Task: structure prediction
Amino acid sequence: MQGDSMGFYIAPHYYQTYPFYAACALGLVLTGYGIHRRRVSVLTTIHGLERQHGLELERSRIAKDMHDGLGASLTQISLQSE
Result:
């Protein structure tokens, strides 16, 4: 005598499915891309600030040179007029 058999299927949990794996992979890729974009943005900002600081230093140097040159010229004029 043979017994009856019954087939059944146990569905996997959501975290055991291929769409979940694909979503996790996409999430990792997008997170990496976001980190990369943020890093590029910060480096661009830093580069711009360094360039601005360099311009300020150069302007300060030029202003100092002009002031020194103007002071020397005024002193020379003052001495010659006496």
Notes: The two ends are 137 Å apart (CA to CA).
